[in-house]
Each structure stands twice: as structure tokens, then as C-alpha cells.
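Design review, sub-item: ligand-bound model
Attendees: FS, YL, KQ
YL presented the inputs for the thymidine-5'-triphosphate complex:
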Amino acid sequence: MPVARPESSDSRVIAHVDMDCFYVQVEQRRQPDLRGQPTAVVQYNAWKGGGLIAVGYEARKFGVKRSMRGDEAKSVCPEIQLVTVPVARGKADLSIYRNAGSEVVAILSRKGRCERASIDEVYLDLTEAAEKMLSETPPESVEAINDEVIKSHVLGLSAEPSDVRQTVREWLCQRNADRRDKLLACGAFIVAELRMQVLKETQFTCSAGIAHNKMLAKLASGMNKPAQQTVVPFASVESLLDPLPIRKMKQLGGKLGHSLQDDLGVNTVGDLLQFSEEKLQDRYGINTGTWLWNIARGINGDEVESRVLPKSHGTGKTFPGRNCLKTIDGIERWLSKFSEELAERLEADLEQNKRIAQTLTLHASASKANEAQSQKKFPSKSCPLRYGTNKILEDALNLFQAGLREYLSSSSKAHGNGCSGWGITNLSISASKIVDIPSGTCSIMKYFHSQDQRYPSSKEFDDKEIHESTALSPSVGSESSSRKHLLEPETECSKDGTKMNIVMNIVMQAHLDDKSRMFEEKTQTSFCRESLPSSTSAKKNEPQLDSVGEETVIKDAISGNRSQDQKGKAFKEKGTSSILQFFQTQNCSSSIQEPKEETVNAIQETAESSCSGKADDTVPLESGGIRNMHHSADQSRVACMYKIDEIDPNVVDELPREIQEEVRAWLRPQKRANNTTKRGSSITHYFSPNKNM
Ligand code: TTP
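KQ shared the predicted structure:
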């Protein structure tokens, strides 16, 4: 439900910038021959020419619409150029568009606080920049006003078409205007400048709305497209909102909008004005009631958040009609692709932006197998996020199975029989609750400890603990709810600790996990294939293997039954003041049994490839933090396979002072080893009792 925030000031200058037919522009930049031609971007699914997802303005003139498929677009516009979205892992790969959006954000953020709202839209708080301009170079003092500013649309100005430019010029430069209008006029100059800069540096055009708050700016940005900007002076707010269909307002497209229409007969924003704040509060609660009362008057206190990076990462795919997924195998295949992509994007985010995500969410839609199920939504589920493709896959599968169990059990209850028919028409996973890596911290031991408590594998959750998640929008900027006590630190110290622990976990695991497939595929293959998930399949400590040769020896290692207790002991052990001691304690505490020879060989091979700098496969036998630096099958060989030279020195700098030295010392011999010989360049060797051999 929307929440009312007090308007901080009605003289803020807020802009909403929206790229024009964004994917088409990106494609036209990649293929300049397409410039000026009617163009549309289509999904790669070739059925009926593929669904259109972006339509260029030249094509719109012919009546081409996003709701069409390629064949239909061709029938209304035979010259249309249809460009298929790039494909990776059997699904659309949006990275070129995402990266293009980042280029734009980098430019727009030069003039004020910038919030990236989606792949192609941004809010800017230009209040300070506008105030500065007003005091130093007010519009009336500008000698040559750029055409782009003069072309602004100012709502509420009336003029003969031949006089529009002059009228706009006069409005922009009026000396005796209300201060709020003067600030908006400065905003128009600044935004025009930014848009020209975007065009110059990226070749993309964009449109913008300039107003006193986010809601009004967003409404205005779409009013005059492409490549134009619209200003909403305070005095024209009422006439803008009055006739606006209520369902067009942000957050009123769903249930709340329906209720306003059906229960109160409110069809336009203006219709809302007749209701007192109290009446709206009585009906919709205090917050929503006040929010509705405010929006009817153009009041919206939402701040522009300082965020140039996405709030979440998501990946998914629809499987319409007969393409729906009907087996756990099929689900696993797709989740595996999604996990790989998500893991890559998370790693890139970590590397480039020093950010970590904390929550993994799975969303799905199920087909209507029967009447009862058609009423029921597939529940979204989330859990703490663990880095690495395989861990994400494992957790996503568990989330899926938990969701499916719930979906089927409630439908079968409602229907009074067992439900065997299910089909997934939409499947996605996302990573949210993304935070910056902290620069300071208090105790590394706390990191480890908190990680131990906070980041169990989803296998260690039962269904109650895998939490229900609110629906995520597929766009950038979505966020999921999650179980608070698992994710939110009780103290500042543990907050930092958790984050830093994740950092260490990531740094030390990332190269392990994603490259560990060879081992994991041999050992951890089955997730209740081709059958409905058993009611116990995701239960705590349940063995996760069922069919492959190595199962019995690996089961406990993966589910962590026995080693869990010992890990617990090690964590409780007081006086483990040294990192080395800590790791050694962890390694020695492992009671993982020896896998079959074949598997051990795989481990050894991978340790060597790690030394040579090639893709290194290692053995992520359990979940968790640094403690999982991995245990080889043979306990006399401590198999902590981690490419130490890949530790980012910055991470070490961010550790508490008292342990920085220790970590550096720990790293040093490793570097020397690398300089001289590839042998011994793994932690395995470093920790090995025979490391001097
Ligand atoms: P929009 O900003 O909604 O549209 P647009 O930029 O194509 O056109 P406009 O000038 O009217 O703003 O979406 C931004 C991009 O997001 C769009 O180019 C393609 C992609 N997109 C989808 O992939 N699927 C969708 O359903 C929508 C709405 C957009």
C-alpha cells in the first residue's frame, strides 16, 4: 500500500528523464543503417514474427504498436526492420540495454542526486543546481538561450502556435515570477543541457518532465515524446491532474485503483477531491488515505534516492501455452541458466560497484490445470542469498519446491483431490537487498559468527523459514520482502560484520563455487526429478542426493549434518584470535568423508588448474562463510582451494586494522610462491602440514 510522505518543500526541482524507444535506439546505435528507418525490437521467439517489445517512433507513425507481433507489424508497415533481442542461455540477454542505460545515468548524475528507476528512466533532484543557477546566472541573464530550452512545453501556457516559442521564452525569463516558477525555469535549462549532453555522448535521445515532485515529473515526462521536455508549474497542477484517469497514476493500476472506481466511483484524479482525508483514511487506513488525499492535490513527498545502480538483479523467462514447464528437470534446467546469469551479474556488481545482494527470491506463475488452481497464485519465496551459481541454483530449486508444495497443497485442498497437473508459465529469480560493502568493521570473528547464523543454505530451512515474498516487478528497482530477523542486523557492529563476512565469503568462494560444477555434477545431481516434490525433500538436513554413484559418502558432506555440529563447536571456541588458527580449526573440524577415487581426482585436477591460473574447479561441499574453504576428502590434506592471489587487496584494506597485518602476512608467502612456481599456489598447499615439500 502506498505511504504518504510529507512534502519536504514545494519548491524542489525534480526531473524524470525517460529514454525514447530505448531498445530501438540501442539497436540503431549498433547498426547505424537502421537510423531513420521504421524499426522495432522483437523477442527472439519467432512465433508469428516474435512479440514486439520496443517500437521506434518512425514505425509508430505507421500504426505499429508494442502489443503486435512481428508479422502484424509487417502487415501495417512492410518496411519495418525487426531486430531480435540478443540471446544468451536460451533467453533474451538484456545486458547491452542495461549497459547503455548505465552510460546515460553516468551523464545525468552530474548535476544532482540521481535515482535510477528502471533500465531507461531516472529521477533527478536538481534543487541545488537550480538554486545555484538562480542566484548566479538567472534565466533572464542568459544571452543566447539554447533552442532545446525554448522547445520546452510549459503546462498551462496558452499561445497561438506561431507564438509558442516566444511565450515559452518569456515564461522562462520572467523577472517577477513566483520563486517556484523561477526555479523550474532553471530546471528546464539544466535538463535541456543534460539531454543534449546525453545525445552528444551516447547518441540517444530522451524526454523529461520537470516539476516540484517525482509524481508530477513522471507524469510530465511522457507527455511530449520523443526528445522533448515538459515543465509543470505549480499553478497548472490542478488542470493536469483533474482529468487524468485514476488508473494511470502510479500505484493505482491495481487493486487500489479498482476499489476507488468500484467502491467510490472515482474515475479521474479530480474525482478524488470530493473526499475528505478522514473519509479516505477510514476506508483505506491512515497512510493510504492521506496518500490519496495528497496525490489528488499533486502533493508527493517522495525523495529522489541517491541510487545510480539497480536496486535488484533479476532474470527469468515466460513459457506460454504449450511451452509451460511441467517437470522438475525442466525447472532445474532453466533455473540453472538463470543462476548462472544472476551469479555473473552479482559478481560484476561486486567487482565494479563493491555491492552485495542479500536476498534471493523466486517468482513463478503456474498454468491453470484446474478450476481450483486457476484461483491460486504460485507463491513467491525468498531466502538469504549465497553467492555462486551452484548455491543460487540449489537455493532457487528449494524455493521452487517450497512454493510448488504450497501451491499444490492449497489447490488440492480446495479441489478435494490430489493435483498432479502443474505447468509453470513464468519463472524468474532475483537478487535484492543490495548493500554497499562497508568500509569499516569491528571484528572478523563476528563476521564469521554472524555468517554462520545468518546464511545457512536454504536446505537448512524448512518451509516456514523459506519466506513468502511480495511480488517483484521485473524492472530494476524492485525489492522483495524477506524475513527480517535473518537479514537485519541487531547492531551496527553485526551489520558490518555480516557484510564483511559476505565479502570475505564472496571473495573466497566466488572462484570456487562457479567453477565447481565438475564435482557437483558428479555428486549433487538430483532434485526429485520428473516427479512432484516430496513433502520432505527440502527438509532440514535431508540428504540431497539420490541416484548417482557417489551418493552415500557425499550426502552428509553436502547436507552438513555432522560437520555442522563440529563447525558449531569451532565457532564457539574462545580464544581463536588468529585467522590462520581459525581456518585451521575449521579445516580440522571437518569430518567429511572421502568421496570415491574419481571424485578425489577431480578435486586434485582442479587444484592444479587453479595454480595455473586456468578455470579452477573446486569443491563447495557446504554452505556458509569462510569456514567453507573447502575440505578435501582426505583430511590429512587440507583442501582449502582458493586462489589467494585473487583476493582483492582492497578487501584486506577494509578489514579491521588489527587483523589487516595478519591477513597480509597470510597472503605474502602465497604471492612469492606464485612468482616462482605454480606449485603450491593454493591455500590447500599453504595450510598443508607438508607445505614445504
Ligand atoms: P518504455 O520506456 O516503456 O518504452 P520505450 O522506451 O520503448 O518507448 P517510449 O519512448 O514510449 O518510452 O520501455 C523501455 C524499454 O524497456 C523498451 O525500449 C523495451 C523494454 N520493455 C520490454 O522489454 N517489455 C515491455 O513490456 C516494456 C513496456 C518495455
